[in-house]
């Protein structure tokens, strides 16, 4: 299992940053991917139990929200996808930092194929960095 964490300070209050990243249905408004709610959550539309399809064209994955701690963290796990992945999970943590928010985005994955660890780490870092970069850009433009 490979795990990486990307940290970024976003110049917006924790409530605003959390709301943006918890709203997975709207990811496609600021990220270069499609996002669609497949099944609503138990307690709220995008809460625990919600399943979202995220992808690029026909290639995509379904992720299930497994924990939401408002303005603190969101955890999800891969449910299905066309990727050679045995297991994949992610956690986004939010910490107030003055008027800004420190966001830690961690991903862990176990591939079915023998791929060098550094290559896996690099791919995960690119994705988590891009995700937070695009979120920061969206909030700066708001």
From TrEMBL:
SUPFAM superfamilies per the UniProt record, alphabetical: Bet v1-like
Gene3D superfamilies: 3.30.530.20
Superkingdom of source: Bacteria
Pfam families reported for this sequence: Polyketide_cyc2
Protein name in the entry: Coenzyme Q-binding protein COQ10 START domain-containing protein
Upper lineage: Bacteria, Bacillati, Actinomycetota, Actinomycetes, Mycobacteriales
